[in-house]
Amino acid sequence: MGRIDRQPNAGPRRSFRPALAALASALVPGLGQLIAGRRRRGFVLLGIAAAATVPALWLVLARPLTIATWSVQPAALRWLLVANGMALAFRVFAAADAYLAAGGAAVGKSSLLGVGGLVGLGTAAILVVPHAIAGYYDVVEYDLITTVFRPTPTTTTVTTTTVTTTQAPIAAGTTATTAPTTTAAPTTTTTTIPVRLWDGTERLNILLLGGDAGPGRRGVRTDTVILASFDPDSGDAALFSVPRNMARVPVPENLDIWECDCFPDIINALWKYGTDNPGRFPGEAPPGALALKLAIGELTGLDIHHYALVNLQGFVELVDALGGIDITVPARVYDPVYPHEDGSVELIDIQPGEYHMDGHLALAYARARRTSDDYSRMGRQRCVLQAVASQADPVRVIRSFPDIANAIKNNVTTDIPLERLPDLIELLPKLDADTIVSVRFVPPVYTGPRTPEGYNTPDVAVIRSHVATVVELPAAEAIAALRLEDTDEACS
After folding, report:
1. In Å, what is the CA distance from 304 to each residue of 270, 375, 379?
2. The pairing of beta strand 345-350 with beta strand 181-192
3. What pLDDT does residue 489 have?
4. Hey, which residues does 190 pair with through a beta bridge?
5. 74-101 vs 10-27: helix crossing angle, rounded to 10
6. Of the four listed, 2, 319, 340, 392, which is most buried by Cβ atoms within 10 Å?
7. How far lies 485's CA from each of 10, 384, 431, 472, in Å?
8. For residue range 246-297, what is the model confidence (pLDDT) as tens digits?
9. What is the pLDDT of residue 6?
């Protein structure tokens, strides 16, 4: 009788080995080829992977600020998306090649339903999921920065008129009696306008506005007006808070709108006035924003470079996206008819203590004033802003980034140029939320006589003097010189 040689269990072992090789190369391109015995190809793929991975890891670990600045540049985001696709294609090729090198082409269909099939599904997930997440974050970031921030025009077209005078030929022996012929020909030239970058700016001043636009409200009232001023070199920062009910805030004389050279109403109505009278505030920024930038600049003696406006719902969504914030409430906040952001009213009663607040409660804490006053509310707003800034750690931001981006995109308007975002990113590591100088223009130090309606007017000379002290001295010295309250202690 003839003898047939058999190799027990060769089928299962053979079906599992290609899947294992593919998984190995999905994790580390080239490793699966080494398992399959294709040493030369494996080392080539390992070299290619190392050449791409090592510089990327070095950038992430040693130069995270570079990665952050790239994340706010549209061109860099497009290239990162391309690089992400190329990395996925390379890993797919390495995994497929390892699978075939280990004999995957000879594996039967039934074996794919066993252990090898499960390993194959895991391999597919390892290949696709990280690249899909990275691509999604890339697209979200690109959409955010190109929606909220606008590029600065770098060229302008100027049309000029060139006048050419010609004289008709004069026949010999005659005297000219006709006037010369004048021809006007328009010519068009293109002039390059340099984009203003960080260099040369002694202080960066951004007007932060909180608007109450929403259901049942006409127009925007800026109930929060805070001027944020930054020193690009030292990282010192200051917040100057203007009460919403401060009246007769000065405006530049060349506006020639009011005899007093001031806005006669309270400051939170100026945005709406500018919006209703756009011809008085021409410019690229919205008329309401430009009106406020001019007024707050005149009040403080500083040039206001940019503004950012967030509405009520945007603040709620932002805090919720961060997972809430921890707030210490030193005194009861009570408002029986607090205006909810959806247009309804509700009872707010926040007792002293430690709280982890969601967006709605944090907004109510910062906004309620029924049984207190605007000046107490300004202090609470300062504490809420500090909590958001200090508790928005990178892990929370990355984890919740799509929600944060959506909240900003739908609820924030600004005139900060897209090209200037890298400069702002480079400033962030220098900032210390616990040493920000905070000045509130409240009575009696910063106010003058009241209006007939009972509103405080600003003492412009004192305000400008104290602002100059803050921007000229280091943060600690300014706090001591003006005997300011320590923000960290006040909010604890």
Report:
1. 16, 23, 23
2. unpaired
3. 62
4. 157
5. 160
6. 319
7. 79, 16, 19, 19
8. 999 999 998 889 999 999 999 999 999 999 999 998 877 899 999 999 999 9
9. 45
Class of domain 204-490: alpha beta
Angstrom distance (rounded) from CA 273 to CA 109: 74
User: What values do phi and psi take at 311, rounded to 5?
Assistant: -90, 175
Q: In the sheet where 222-230 sits, what is the strand order?
A: 412-414, 306-311, 204-211, 222-230, 237-242, 437-440
From CA 477, how far away is CA 13, in angstroms rounded? 74
- Residue 428 token pair: 């962030």
Calpha distance 224→289 (Å, rounded): 13
Which residue ranges of the chain lie beneath pLDDT 50? 1-13, 109-113, 115, 154-198
User: How far is the first Cα of the chain from the last one, in angstroms, to the nearest whole number?
Assistant: 94
Burial track 166-203 (b if 16+ CB lie within 10 A, e otherwise): eeeeeeeeeeeeeeeeeeeeeeeeeeeeeeeeeeebeb
Distance CA 407, CA 392 (A): 15
User: Per residue in 153-209, pLDDT tens?
Assistant: 544 333 333 333 344 443 444 444 444 443 434 443 333 333 444 455 678 999 999
d(CA 291, CA 288): 5
The neighbouring-strand residues paired with 437 are 238
Report the pLDDT value the prediction gives residue 121, as an integer from 0 to 100: 77
What distance in Å separates the CA atoms of residue 447 and residue 459, rounded to the nearest whole number? 5
Is this prediction's pTM over 0.85?
no
Distance CA 330, CA 352 (A): 5
What one-character-per-residue DSSP string does 190-214 give? Answer: EEE-PPP-STT-S-EEEEEEEE---
Count of beta carbons in the 10 Å neighbourhood of residue 260: 10
Asked whether 243 and 439 are in contact (CB, 8 A), the reply is no
